[in-house]
Amino acid sequence: MTSYVFDPAPRPAAPVRGTDARFPINRIFCVGRNYEAHAREMGVQVDREAPFYFTKSPGTYVPSGATVAYPPSTGNYHYEMELVVAIGKPAFRIAREDALDAVYGYACGLDMTRRDLQLAARAKQRPWDIGKDFEESAVLSEIVPVADCGHPAAGPLELRVNGETRQSSDLGLLIWSVPELIAHLSTLYHLQPGDLIYTGTPEGVGPVGPGDRIEGSIAGLGGIALTVG
């Protein structure tokens, strides 16, 4: 029996619609600049040669409905509403036409961001880690298996703050589709069951503060909610 110098942290795992079983989270990949209007509002050009990625630690997972603390060392804490892909089978150098076979299901996600720290790092051509990969920054709804939702390629995506609509777009406006993302990402990593892909956010991102209530939805997948404590 393995002995540890301290108890290891439990494996983060998300609920799955229609079952008591949970989806163990392995890695979290995030796609940047995957909606043209969002890239414009961030003052950058879309790179159409290949998708752009950053990562979050599995321990940043937060279930929908939670209340999270306003994060330290930021004065510009942003929401980003996204479609999330849950990988259920190994995939390495998978062809685009076969990529959807690796998908277990889909969910709503919030990529919470310390925008001031992200932009400061970007200006110095440094990694975005401290702006993106911090505690309680990867919010996730229940995962809906493919058998219950199919493969959503179009449909409304919305986010509201205190009841006011801030983001309203359509999945059909993704620059890089889900099959394209899986196929490309599988040339860089051996994708494994438990991996999540946050596919990018549309325009309308903005700040929230203590006491704000965030609610989002994607057609066919239900909703997601977060309260800033």
Automatic annotation (TrEMBL):
Q: Which Gene3D superfamilies is this protein grouped with?
A: Fumarylacetoacetase-like, C-terminal domain
Key words of the record: Metal-binding
Q: Which InterPro entries match?
A: Fumarylacetoacetase-like_C, Fumarylacetoacetase_C_sf
Q: Does the UniProt entry include the keyword Metal-binding? A: yes
Q: Where are the transmembrane segments?
A: none
Checking SUPFAM superfamilies in the record gives: FAH
Q: Which Pfam family is an annotated match for this chain, by its short name?
A: FAA_hydrolase
A Gene Ontology molecular function term for this protein is: metal ion binding
Residues covered by the Fumarylacetoacetase-like C-terminal domain: 28-228
The entry's protein name is: Fumarylacetoacetase
